[in-house]
Design brief:
Blueprint (H helix, E strand, L loop, with lengths): L2 H13 L2 E4 L11 E4 L2 H13 L23 E4 L25 E4 L3 H5 L3 E3 L4 E7 L15 E8 L2 E8 L11 E2 L4 E4 L10 E8 L2 E3 L17 E8 L5 H6 L6 E2 L5 E11 L4 E7 L5 E8 L4 E11 L8 E11 L2 E12 L1
Parallel strand pairs: 14-20
Antiparallel strand pairs: 1-2, 3-4, 4-11, 5-10, 6-7, 6-9, 7-8, 8-11, 11-12, 13-15, 15-18, 16-17, 16-19, 19-20
């Protein structure tokens, strides 16, 4: 990013730190939530991108390998491991990585979102020098942690590799020339993967390169130190598999539901974080508000609170849920969701 443009982005970020987030419910207009990355993390990372001096020549610039807005409908779950020893830390010193991780994992909230079809795009122009397809989703083959993937040569010793592509979705072949942003495949769950994402690895002359450290992105993403993936209502504490699948959120519940439960799923949580979950009834009356302390650092997690039905039925109407993630005094993220009781 040109330095002047980056400075302007920096100033804009100071003036407007919030973005809209919502969990739309079928048949009803989406509620708008406010998302706040926290002034310390946001400004620190913008300063890093604006004023850090890359150690590598800037002859490669990358776009995101999927068409999304980071922090809203996609999220960086894991970065390149910057620790040369047995430990693990991302390029900021944070925990969003694991030992030996050699790429950037950009995810969507859940499997339901992925199954709607997420095109994976060429991060830059180049020539395809490697393709694997035909590995079934949900399977792992020894020695094929990438699963289905594509490798692109960009010249000058630069290569990128895209991993975990859906079975049968790759639309290019070895030897093909691709343009920046060209669809190559769909996001899948092949290879070594615990969540729906695309893994992008960047190499120069065979050595791993962190595109955040070397400022290779066409538009420098703001570092998100963790946040919320999704939120929803159910009539009982959902199974975590249902949360990860994207099937745990109810659009409607009967007025005689045994309980009203609000849940939120998190990525990059740290020990000491607090998740505040609040439910309000049809007239705006607060039904429940509870702070849940997170006692350990986890790549992904979820928490839920609720209230049992203690009358013949709930009052019918629209119920609003607000899930807010705090780290220390800073609000990291928030999502509003809703359910109709009828």
């Amino acid at each position: 990013m040109p330095r002047l443009a980056c400075i302007l982005v920096f100033i804009s970020a100071i003036l407007a730190m919030t973005r809209s987030r919502s969990c739309p419910v079928r048949g009803y207009p989406a509620l708008t939530g406010r998302r706040f990355a926290g002034p310390v993390n946001t400004t620190r990372m913008l300063v890093l991108f604006c004023f850090a001096t890359p150690t590598l020549a800037q002859d490669l610039q990358l776009r995101l390998p999927l068409d999304c807005t980071l922090g809203d409908d996609c999220f960086v779950q894991q970065y390149v491991d910057a620790d040369p020893g047995p430990g693990a830390r991302d390029f900021t010193g944070g925990p969003l990585t694991y030992d030996g991780h050699k790429g950037t994992d950009i995810r969507v909230a859940d499997d339901e979102t992925m199954k709607a079809g997420i095109p994976i795009l060429a991060p830059a122009a180049g020539r395809v020098i490697g393709v694997r397809d035909g590995t079934p989703d949900g399977t792992r083959v020894a020695g094929q942690d990438c699963g289905n993937g594509v490798v692109i040569d960009h010249g000058g010793g630069w290569q990128t590799q895209l991993c975990h592509l859906a079975n049968g979705s790759v639309t290019t072949a070895r030897g093909n020339t691709v343009t920046e942003g060209q669809p190559l495949a769909l996001m899948g769950r092949t290879g070594q993967t615990e969540f729906p994402h695309v893994h992008i690895a960047v190499r120069r002359d065979g050595a791993v390169v962190d595109p955040f450290v070397e400022a290779l992105w066409l538009e420098a993403p703001i570092y998100e130190a963790g946040g919320l993936l999704a939120a929803g209502f159910s009539d009982a504490i959902p199974e975590y598999d249902a949360v990860k699948a994207g099937t745990a959120d109810a659009a409607n519940l009967p007025v005689d539901a045994p309980a009203l439960v609000l849940w939120g799923s998190i990525y990059g949580s740290q020990a000491g974080d607090v998740l505040r979950l609040t439910i309000r009834g049809p007239r705006g009356k607060e039904i429940l508000s509870q702070d849940v302390a997170l006692d350990r650092t986890q790549a992904q997690a979820f928490r839920a609170v609720g209230r049992r039905l203690n009358a013949t039925s709930w009052q019918g109407g629209r119920y609003i849920g607000l899930v807010v993630l705090f780290r220390g005094e800073a609000e990291l993220d928030r999502i509003e969701t809703q359910v109709m009781l009828d």
